[in-house]
Amino acid sequence: MRTTDESPAQADSTGSTRPPRRPRTVLAMDAGLLDDVFPPAVRLRLEEAADIRPPQVVAEFTSPEAVAALAECEVLLTGWGCPPIDTGVLDRAPRLRAVIHSAGTVKTFLTPEAYGRGIAVSSAAAANAVPVAEFTLAAIIMGAKRAFPLAHLFRSRRTHRTAADLDRHHWLGTHGITVGVVGASRTGRRVIQLLRSIDADVLLHDPYVSDAEAELLGATRTDLDTLVATSDVVTLHAPSTPLTHHLLDERRIALMRPGALLINTARGPLVDTEALTGHLVSGRIDAVLDVTDPEPLPPGHPLWDLPNVFITPHMAGAQGNEVGRLGALAVDELARYARGVPLNHPVLLEELERIA
């Protein structure tokens, strides 16, 4: 089924229609990921929307072929593995008008100078937020039911648990739990939306969100100390910036309730690993960690073997057949650009310092 972004003609702001043009576009990403990001149906839409030159992926911007492609390029369609787009690259791309990223953050490869040259920037972070939020909801449900420590006991004993196994916890299960969401990012907002499917009260901490906006999202806005002290589950969805480094330090981790669950699917440096380790080794709290600091943890680190800790290899984001969702969003954005209508997922200069 075609979306509105695939229509052969589209009404502009004046109500008239015109056939979409096909802007000269260069693909810049890891060539090995091309078929995952743009599976056949998405690749067909891409070729309908853009004039891809050269037809192969550009892995660097210095060869004569790459320099020639940049000179004619109007859109850079980037992805994981994109070479740095610095001032020199921008100088070699005088016709560049848009960078459309078929993955999450653009901060790792794109110089902010692009904005000063009037270049529009878009990201597929919203598409990547979908599987991260789904992973988080699964972690909340499994963690609330103590699936991870109970599975460890079951494997070691080969018998069912006893009533005393988890009697240190003041709660077990999802009914009426309080979930504290740290960060109203794309993922954080989607987590709040998904939490409507279970009987949970939702707290939100985000310094850029008002009480009224939090209420519209379905959460109660609060300060971070109150959130960690009163939540049964604390789930992190903030970017890694100097302001958020060790957002959960020893003091705040100590505020968490006995038996509380910490979930980190955002960035490892949000949490002081040394401080967290002490609270997890003691068994006072549980954790699901898709990211750590460092990442991965050293082979002998105590968190690897704790029954109350579930560590995954930074896999909450798009994997396998989920990756095509990112490419589809990027093609939608490219089609919108070609028609001269605003991008749906712009990355704005004023937001760079506070987004992932």
TrEMBL record:
Superkingdom of the source species: Bacteria
Molecular functions (GO terms): glyoxylate reductase (NADPH) activity; hydroxypyruvate reductase [NAD(P)H] activity; NAD binding
Domain D-isomer specific 2-hydroxyacid dehydrogenase catalytic: from-to ranges: 59-347
Pfam family, one: 2-Hacid_dh_C
Cellular component GO terms held in the UniProt record: cytosol
InterPro entries: D-isomer_2-hydroxyacid_DH, D-isomer_2_OHA_DH_cat_dom, D-isomer_DH_CS, D-isomer_DH_NAD-bd, NAD(P)-bd_dom_sf
Species annotation: Streptomyces antnestii
Residue span(s) of domain D-isomer specific 2-hydroxyacid dehydrogenase NAD-binding: 157-316
Record's protein name: Hydroxyacid dehydrogenase
Regions crossing the membrane: none
Segments for region (Disordered): 1-23
Alphabetical keyword list: NAD, Oxidoreductase
Mitochondrion as UniProt keyword: no
Family: Belongs to the D-isomer specific 2-hydroxyacid dehydrogenase family.
Compositional bias annotation for Polar residues: 1-17
CDD domains: 2-Hacid_dh_8
